[in-house]
Structure formats: structure tokens, C-alpha cells
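Q: Start with the shorter request: fold the first protein.
A: Done. Sequence, then structure:
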Amino acid sequence: MSYTIFSTNTSYPSQYPYQLIELTGNITLGWATSFDTFIAAAGYNEITTTQDGYVITLPDATLASEGVDVLFSNISAYNFIVNKSDGTLLYTVNSGVIVDLKLIDNTTSAGGWRIIPFLGGYNGITSFNIESSDNTITITNGAVTPPGATINLQLPTSISNLNNVATTGFPVIQNTSPLTWQTRRLVAGNNINIINPDGITDNPLINLNDNLSGLVSAQIGNVLINGLEITTNEPDGSVLLTSDGEGYVILNNVTVDTNGNMVVNGNLTVTETFNNPLTPKVWCTFTDIITGESNDITIEGSSNVSTITGSNGVYTINFTTPLSNVNNYGVVITLGTTGGPLPLVSHGFWTVREAGYVTISIVDASGELVSSVPNGATVVIMSV
């Protein structure tokens, strides 16, 4: 609304509510109470502009009352500048921005202005709700309506409990519903060494100590070490002890080189068969003495001999373990002296040679079978 009073100029109310200003250049605003040709500063000024940088200069602040509002809404795609009446910059209003300029000091022409942005120039939110779709966050008073409210957001107790853990280490769950937490660190045992047990500076590294103690048994691959025994759990498996080059395997002062040569610095006792082509496969010493009307055979010493049977110069020596090379073993027979008159000649020879036994005959100097062998006979069998 405007009025014409004693002049040809248009007179405005003290401040009218709204106007649209189309900027095509720089302009200077006046107050609606002034009787002059100008564009009056409305309470709400909607601005369009054709380019960036046009300037709107505010009126003389001394001609208005403190508390006056001049609100600008930039509805264009470009910015414009608002200067005080002395030409100093007050505010740059970007595209889409609404700003309220409130006069708070009118003692100078430039004045003192309070700059109050209005939500970036967009429609304000009148109410909103905050929700947790999976209920992992506890929300109190999540519905907000003007003029405002206090929203309380809380993490679930289980997560809060984790946040309250005060020690370092690996987190573990002690209880459920809600979860309670504690930290743990790796602790080494007697034969274990652990680097970075709490995992803070790097990943934990677990190693066996260089020297192990207190173990009763251990398994390495298929090799079992149990007390004083070393065995293997592999069917038909072997336990290999080897050296290298000029080295030896030493077992209680017995040395074995890489070629299998053995040096025994002590006595060697073999309770079973000693498999060597240079040692007898069978040997025995026995006597045959006539007692009454029967022959009494006594084995005085032997190896690999189970029994000796026979009489009257023909004897069968039975082997404990049969020989594998039936056709190639040799039989050596020696006889004790008869102590009688010359000639003291008796000799023996084999007659049957089998894998499990050998049959020998003993004759006197005339070639007749002896009736007994009271002074003993020794039989040695060699075989490869």
C-alpha cells in the first residue's frame, strides 16, 4: 500500500511486508518512511538476479529503529552481495539462501547488523523421528516437534560394557544377555615362548623354547619318543639315525660311519643269531656216552641248535632256525681224542643236508661207525 501526501513522490508505510526485486545491476535501498524516489527495504525481499556479484546497499541505519529486520531470499541461480550504507561488505547471499539482517545498532550510518541465516533457504523440517531399525541403539524421545526436544541416544548395554573395558589384550565374553567383557593375554607354559602376548604391537608369535624340559613323550612326524624309547607308528616303518660325510653316529661308545662300518669299544654280546657270512650259522659240541644199554647225548654248547638225536655214530642235529641256503652250506666236524692205542684216528662227515637239520656219521680208523662219542664232537656250519 502507498500514499501520496503533498508531493508527487510515492510514500510507503513504515515497512511493508514483501517485495520481489529483479536485479539487473547494483541498487541502494531506502526506508519506507523516507519521502524520496527509491526501492524501499521490505520486511521480506525475494531476489532474482541474472549474474553473480550484483550489490544491494542497505539504507542509512540512523534513519531506522533498532530491531528492524530486512530479510533477503535468493531464489535465483546466482549470488548477490549486501553492503552496509558506507559500502562495506555485510554478507554474500548465495543461491537458495535466506538470511535475516537485524539492525542492532543505529548510532552510525553503517549501523550494526545481526546476521541470522534461515536454514540455507530451504523448507524447514517441522518434525522428525529417530529410529533404530535393528534396535541396536537405544533411543529415548526420538520424536521431535517444534520448538525442540532432547534426544537421548544410547548404545546397547553389551557394547557399552565393551567400551568400559579398561585393560588391554584380547576381548572375551564372560556372560551373555547382556554381554560382559574381559581381556585376556596369552601366557606361555614351561616349553613355550610367546612374543607380543597381548597382540598390541604386533601379531602374537608362539614358539617352542630351544630347550624342552619336563616332557614325558613327544611325536615328531611318525617318530615317537616315549621316555627312553624311540619308535615309529608307521606300519613297517624304520627309524633312521644318519650322519653326514666323515661324521659318525655314536651310541654308548659304539661308532657307526656313513658306510655302516662299526667300531665297538667294548664287548659285543649277541643273544640271538649274528647274521654275518664270516660267522657260523650253526655250531654245537656234544658227547654220546653209553649208559647201561642206551646212549646218552649231552649238548655241551651250541648256537641255533634245538636238539641232537641218534646213536652209534649217526647223529641228526636239528636247527632252531632253518637255513636259507640249503645246497651251499658247509659242515666242519672235529672229534676229541680217544686216548687209546695208536692209531688214534676217527673222523666224521655229513650224509644228509637239509634246511632244518644235518645228519652226520662218525667212523673209526677202520671205517666202522663208532658206538659212542665219549670225548665229544664239534660241528660248525658255515653259510652265506
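Q: Next, the second protein, separately.
A: Sequence, then structure:
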Amino acid sequence: MKYLSTFLLLLSAWLTASAQTDSTAYEVTGNMPVFYRQMKQQLTFPLAWGKAEETDFDAWKVRARNRLMECMENIPSAPEAYGLEVTDRERREGYEARKIVFNLSGWCRVPAYLLIPDGEGPFPAIVLLHDHGAHFSIGKEKMVRPFHVAPEVMKDADQWVDRYYDGQYTGDYLARHGYVVLAVDALLWGERGRKEGASYDAQQALASNFLQMGTSWGAFIHMDDVRSAEFLASLPFVDKERVGCLGFSMGAYRSWMLGALTDAVRASASVCWMNTTEYLMTPTNNQNKGGSAYAMLVPGLRRYLDYPHVASIACPKPTLLFNGTRDKLFPVEGVNDAYREMQSVWKSQGASDRLVTRLWDETHFFNREMQQAVLAFFDRWLKP
């Protein structure tokens, strides 16, 4: 009888566990709540141009940008002085590469690469915004060829540029064509990394800690980008009326966000990051994994504006967006929807010629032909 009672208890426990592990009992599948469709249906984006109460576009831009800034609270102030210091130099064909440090904000003094063309300024200038790639050991070195660094850093940078930039350092390419170039590490990358060493899981802990202190890691990165643009525009050899920004992947997201956030940037180019919440928030999309997505989150913003609506705050500034038809991270249907939304905004302001959108027969990759097209775009809008 004793053994029977024990058996019945074990059987009952097993049946209970089986019921709890039955997929029908769960409300989360993969990384998504089973009611994610209902959540998306509630996102009506009431502050989008054409839906908001404003009929004057300039008034709408002010309100939309203010709302964006409200979602990015507890961010560092601008520095009292930049305190620019040049720590190293290297002569290159047609330009000089400098390693500098400067006060990026009231909280952070950072290293950066600054490329300056030969000749008489003031020059047009580009803020370069590096990708994520779950690769934290380098940041700015993904787009500007490093110098006087350890062999392993040089190898790391060369391999990354081969893998995603078609073997060409984009910043050096722009400098050879007459642009001042600034590249700064985002927080957690390169020389602004983690004392204990970079790791994929560390970004979720970092993002959580930012949220618990009233802001977000993504908002912090965006404001660093704004301060970078302001710093670049302040340099005596830079024409502050001709400052642009460029990024690939996460850097592309940062680029169109920067165009929306500040008028220090007069033109933006974004390669391989544009879509809509409808197509990104699905059980199979990479965006739902968390991790890397934390660097590109501004809490609460989706209640008001979707990605293309935010990017449209930059209108009528010259804006370029490229995506790849074979890029598995960004569904083509979502890219097309986002492009159509932005095209309608630029058209409404009589500025259709200032918006360039194109789908390339390409993967998640910034090839040399695309880089050439970006250069032509900047030459049109940032050179006299």
C-alpha cells in the first residue's frame, strides 16, 4: 500500500508537470508573447505625420522631435568645453589620420579617429556610425583604418571590413574624396568597452541598468551621436552647413535617428536598417531575440511613432536609405512599406528629389558600388 501511494503521488506529479509543459498552457512561444498580434494592433502611431493634429509640417516636426526627446530622459548634458587633444597622427594619401580625445558630453571623455583632407578648408564632413554585429572588440575601427595599434586589432579590423564593407574602409574612402571624417566608439564597443571584456550577454545587463536609472542604453548612444555631430560642426576646418552622417546596420539606424534628432546634420545616409514594427515584431525575426536590439530601443516611442515616422522628422533634409533584397534581418515587405511611408512625407513637402530609397540585390552587406553611390549622394548635397 505504501508503494502504491508513492506511485500515485509520482504519477500525479508527472501528470501535473506534463500539463504545464504542454505548449497549449504557455503564453510565450519562442521569445514572443502569444498575444503579440493584439499588442501590435494597439500601436496606431498617432503622432505620425498625417495622423497627428498638426497640419503645419514645421509645427509637427517640433512636436514629434520633442516627444522623441521626452522618451530619451536622463541623458548627459553637452560638455562645457571639448578639450580636444591630438594623441597620434599618420600621413595618408590625400589626407591625415589623427587619433584624438575630447569631451563628448558632461560625463564622457572619449577617443576617436579624425580624418582631415589635404588642402584648404573649410571642408564638408561626415559623422561615421559603426555597426553592432555582436562584435564589441572594435567599433570605430570598423570604418576607419586604425594605426599604431596591436597586430590583433589590425587583423580584427581588416577581417571585419572584408566581411561587411567589401574590403574598403568607408571613412578612408570618404577622406580621400575631400571629407573630414569623425568616428567614435559607441558605449560598450572598442575603447569604450567593458573592463572585464566584451560579451554578448553583457549588453542586456547594461541595458537593464540604464532602464533602472530612468533612461535607456539606446537613448544614451543617440545623444552621444548628437554630441559627435555638434563637435564635428564646431571644428574650424569644417563647414558647419555641410555636415552629414553615414552608418551601416545598427549604424544605419543611428544615422537616420541622428538626422531626426538634430539640425547639426544636414544630410544622412543609412545602409541596411529600415523597416516597420509590423514586420520586425514576429516570432521568426532576429529583432525578437533581445540582446542586440537593446542598443536600438527607446522605451515608449512605439506608442507614438514607427521607425519610418521617426526618420521622417528629418524631412526635407537629403536622406538616403539602402536595403538588400537578400538581407534576412529586414523583410522586403517591411522595407517597401517603410519606404512608401517616407516617400509620402517627402512628397507632401515638395522634396521628393531629396529622398533616395533603393533595394539592392544584396545581403546584409555594404558593397563598394553602394559606397560609391553614397559618395555621389553626399557630393550632390554637401559639396558646393
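Q: Describe the second briefly.
A: Residues 43-382 form a domain with the Rossmann fold fold (CATH 3.40.50.1820). Confidence is low (pLDDT under 50) at residues 17-23.
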